[in-house]
Write a structure and sequence with these properties.
Elements lengths: L6 H12 L4 E6 L7 E5 L16 E5 L9 E5 L4 E5 L7
Parallel strand pairs: 2-5
Antiparallel strand pairs: 1-2, 3-4, 4-5
Length: 91
């Protein structure tokens, strides 16, 4: 299933795996019916990817402990979601 990740996010995933990040979960059907969802163990260094991914890719921080991850990168075109790390405590 991981090989179905859109090309817009493939570079981010490959770089993260090469830097020692690991895949924790792969699923489909959320947040949209045609979505692919991949969770990584460590936070993304999103500054590293700014300007190196298509404009359809957005990065954001998730401070909601309900979801449990720290940051995410979402492809608005393909509705694929790559999340990473664990929610950081509020400061």
């Amino acid at each position: 299933m991981i090989d179905r990740l859109c090309a817009c996010l493939q570079g981010v995933l490959k770089t993260e795996i090469n830097r020692g990040n690991s895949v924790l979960e792969v699923s489909e059907g959320w947040p949209s019916a045609d979505s692919l969802f991949i969770s990584l163990s460590k936070d993304l260094n999103e500054r590293k990817y700014r300007g190196r991914v298509p404009s359809s890719v957005t990065f954001s921080i998730c401070a909601d402990p309900h979801y449990g991850w720290h940051n995410e990168c979402f492809c608005q075109t393909h509705k694929h979601l790559l999340v990473a790390g664990k929610t950081h405590g509020r400061k």
